[in-house]
Design a protein that fits this description.
Structural class: alpha/beta
Number of strands: 21
Oligomer: single chain
Length: 511
């Protein structure tokens, strides 16, 4: 392990404050590197298939006990987890920055998102409502109720290494489920820190929190596959690429498990002639370059009316020229590194293909001055495209913004919807008719649709997820909790008769 890189981040002290023991962080097969400078900051042992099996067995035992705990009492554990996250916000946010490369402000913001979902789940623990349904049979009461589902497997990506786990775990725990988490092999330290914080909350909570209620599995694709294929996992909630989802979904369904997929996004903004261009500019820059373009909700396509395209493009170029790129721990930095040079090389390759397809590329090269050595620092790119080519229709996890022009609104909607993905979308307009058309059934085909707001920055109160190749899953707010429970329709006969539904007569001798 590169101790110089570790010492630079004061990682041992940081992990100690978060409750992660120092032993076992330097002797494993899984190398963990910081994207800030490429330094190896830990080496963790991967879990074997047998260890995954053992974790699932513990989760099953924990579920058997946890499902019997009243919902509001379960919510108390989530409340205590939120308290631990509040106390550790700065430290955990810093670890997020060190391990995944997003700027410090975004690292802290991600932890705040965890705190917010805990608050939401605490309230939810008293609102797991069913229905009373009118029965056609006299003397009968029919109802729909929800019960805890079972052990939940959570597989997360590197770009939101802690928030997505919290979206799932806070809701699943409130619903009565146990949780087994397989984080990205690129960001396991943040998972260990979250597990330590959960352990603190569980210790404060008391004996009602069974052993194995929340666990972490460390490893690469093999560990993830073992979790996906395990018949003891009732629900797999997986966040990642569309390619990953295409592999995970059928495997879970083949064993009759449930699946919740949050996959790729190829998000667009329509800028209408009436738009407030200054407002749009701010939204474009944050959405396109924030997290170095490595959000599933990053803005990747800008569909601009030809009347305002030149004006907006000039303003964008100027704004991009002023973006500070560098060490994400520096408060002045707005864009940090890509996760690694493999991502940087892919960005370079895609820009070359876009140029061959007739695109005019602005920016996009590596940044070598004023940045830490070893990190994949890339200048965000703007690409003027003559058409929506296959390259534009394919998500590249990097700060590439394609510019497309349109002349009428129907054309803009067709361009907007003309991609396989369907996560987040937005329009900037002052025209009420255009705004309403964008939100109507024939408008945006995405799971998230915004007016005069960029595609990034979803709040936890609304269900998060998308359509088409984005997977169709929903996490976080609204009624997303239903994915973590099983539905039961129950009918009680309190009469002395046995009338049959649909008026069927089935008399037997002696009636």
């Amino acid at each position: 392990m590169d101790t110089a890189g570790t010492d630079r981040f004061d990682l041992a002290a940081l992990l100690g404050r978060l409750g992660v023991p120092g032993d076992g962080l330097a002797a494993g097969d899984l190398a963990v590197r910081s994207p800030i400078d490429g330094a190896e900051i830990a080496r963790l042992p991967s879990h074997s298939t047998a260890e995954v099996d053992a974790a699932v067995a513990r989760a099953a035992g924990a579920f058997a006990a946890w499902r019997a705990v009243p919902g509001p009492r379960r919510g108390e554990l989530v409340r205590l987890l939120g308290e631990e996250l509040r106390a550790a916000k700065d430290d955990l946010g810093r670890l997020v920055t060190i391990e995944c490369g997003k700027i410090a402000e975004e690292g802290r913001g991600e932890v705040q998102e965890m705190i917010d979902i805990c608050d939401f789940a605490v309230g939810l623990s008293r609102q797991l409502y069913g229905l009373t349904i009118a029965s056609e049979r006299p003397g009968h009461r029919m109802m729909e109720q929800w019960h805890p589902l079972g052990p939940v497997g959570v597989i997360t990506a590197f770009n939101f290494p802690v928030a997505v786990w919290a979206w799932n775990a806070a809701i699943a725990l409130a619903c009565g489920d146990s949780v087994v988490w397989k984080p990205s092999e690129k960001t396991p330290l943040t998972a260990l820190a979250c597990q330590a914080l959960f352990a603190r909350a569980a210790a404060r909570y008391g004996a009602d929190a069974p052993d194995g209620l929340a666990q972490v599995i460390i490893g690469g694709p093999e560990a993830g596959a073992a979790l996906v294929d395990h018949p003891g996992i009732a629900l797999i909630s997986a966040t990642g690429s569309t390619r990953m989802g295409a592999a995970v979904g059928p495997r879970v369904l083949a064993r009759h498990g449930k699946v919740l997929l949050e996959l790729g996004g190829n998000n667009a903004m329509i800028v209408a002639p009436s738009a407030d261009l200054q407002l749009a500019l701010r939204a474009i820059v944050f959405s396109a370059v924030g997290t170095a373009g490595q959000r599933c909700t990053s803005l990747r396509r800008l569909i601009v009316h030809e009347e305002v395209a030149d004006q907006l493009l000039a303003a964008l170029k100027s704004a991009y020229d002023g973006i500070s790129i560098g060490d994400p721990l520096d408060p002045a930095t707005l864009v940090g590194p890509l996760i690694d040079w493999r991502a940087g090389d892919e960005m370079h390759r895609v820009l070359g293909v876009a140029a061959q397809e007739g695109g005019t590329v602005h920016g996009g090269g590596p940044v070598t001055q004023g940045v830490p050595d070893g990190g994949a620092y890339m200048r965000p790119a703007i690409v003027e495209m003559p058409a929506q080519t296959e390259t534009v229709r394919t998500e590249t996890f990097a700060p590439i913004l394609y510019i497309l022009k349109y002349s009428d609104f129907d054309q803009a909607i067709a361009l907007h919807n003309g991609v396989p993905q369907g996560l987040a979308s937005c329009i900037f307009t002052r025209d009420l008719k255009e705004a309403e058309r964008f939100l109507a059934a024939a408008g945006s085909d995405c799971g998230i649709a915004n007016v005069n707001i960029g595609p990034s920055g979803a709040e936890i109160g609304g269900a998060f997820g998308g359509e088409k190749a984005t997977g169709g899953g929903r996490e976080s707010g609204s009624d997303a909790w239903k994915a973590y429970m099983r539905r039961q329709t129950a009918t009680v006969n309190y009469s002395d008769d046995l009338p049959l539904a649909q008026g069927i007569k089935f008399d037997i001798e002696g009636d």
